[in-house]
Amino acid sequence: MGPIRSHSTAIALMTAVNRSEMKISNNPAETLVAFSIGSGIGVAAHDPVGGIGGILNFMLPDSSRANGVNPARTPFMFADTGLPAFLEALYAHEARPDRLKIVIAGGAHILDQTNAFDIGQKNFEVLKAGLDTFNLKIFHENIGGINSRTLSLEIDSGCSSIKIFGEGEVKV
Amino acid sequence: MTDLKDIVKQIDQLDPIPAITTQLMALAADPDSALSEIADLILNDPALTANLLKTCNSAYFGLNRKVDSLRDAIGFVGLDHIVQLVMLNSVARNLRNQSQGYGLGEGELWRHAVSSAHIAKILAGKFGITQHRHLIFTAALLKDIGKLILGRFVAFSLEEINILVHSKGYSFNDAEKKIIGMNHEELGAMVAQNWRFGDKLVYIIRHHHLSNESAREDPATSVVYLADIICMMMGICTGADGLSYRFYSDVLKRMDLTETDLQAVIAETGENQQKIDQLLNLI
Known about the structure:
CATH architecture of chain B: Orthogonal Bundle
Largest interface: A-B, 37 and 37 residues
Strand content of chain A: 25-35%
CATH class of chain B: Mainly Alpha
Low-confidence stretches of chain A: 1-9
Structural class of chain B: mainly alpha
Oligomer: heterodimer
Radius of gyration of chain A: 17 Å
Number of domains of chain A: 1
Shape of chain B: globular
CATH topology of chain B: Hypothetical protein af1432
CATH class of chain A: Alpha Beta
Number of domains of chain B: 1
Distance between the termini of chain A: 41 Å
Mean pLDDT of chain B: 90
Structural class of chain A: alpha+beta
Order of helices and strands of chain B: HHHHHHHHHHHHHHHH
């Protein structure tokens, strides 16, 4: 008797998206995960028709303020350089802007970290403005607070999960 | 409230730190020490010497020749690196242990410690604090050592601690103190004392979240605090306590650190993440 052939036997792949990275996949068995996001923000984008999705895991809002770090070498560290490059990579595949489901998580702050020093909030503002420029709407956001988060995206279903330590998990 | 004696008793369960660690700290901090004195001290420990040579010959340092003596190693990678490698070697065994209660995975306390020490080194360089540079590096490395013991007690009280943090605006360390009777800063300072580290190092560990107002005026303690804050913002191995510690903008102002500087340090650390990971695997 030969092996049973079934989709359910496909090995589920979990791929980490590290800080200052982005990953794109069209493998239905793959789940992308950005672990332990602090003040940075994880952006999950998924096109159900194209069967493609990706996560961008950036840390800082503005590449012009990264004294000594070359944004050409690490574009995905910053919202202003990371978002356009991330979208460009998605569109180079089957993804279309009007079909993208966008989920964002992160932007946490230290207690009493206000105004000028609240990099989490700045990250959110720059990301939001960037998404507006590309005419993209946020499907779900989980932003701010004093906990770190883990964001994942299942390529097959387009389902995103946001885990917040001590507060459980949100699935969207 | 937990009997504090039960907690303090657990300090003995940690692996003792090699005697060379504190001797080396004292020698390295003394501008009159001769290089040969430091080399002789390290050579007394053959296993440590062998380990240092292995590290110096690794891709991490990328030297274009083989280093086969400690004297060469000091010459090529510099005394500062050698002292810091000894510190990393001395504390690795303890910090590699999993700390329960704080929700940290295997090796995460170690990763956080080494990343903090790396950031503290960048900051100390930025602020030109050369006198205490080894002390700052070691303090940043050891600041959360108290979590290794307190974690078990935090696990029992996490729900109560979280209520204070999320509903009453407590910082995590103040909530630990209120619920358990002791926080990881106090316990960490006791560990450092037990290991016979100097008063200054004990002080920095004791106050690294700067709840104490006078600690906010101490540059060395402030650097370790900032390194911790930056690590948390980057989400480097943040657990149950997350980012729930107080931010003191006056400390940044006093140190003349602007928001742009803060972003630059985060970017620099992010760029060095691979280097830090290499170091983690080497020790």
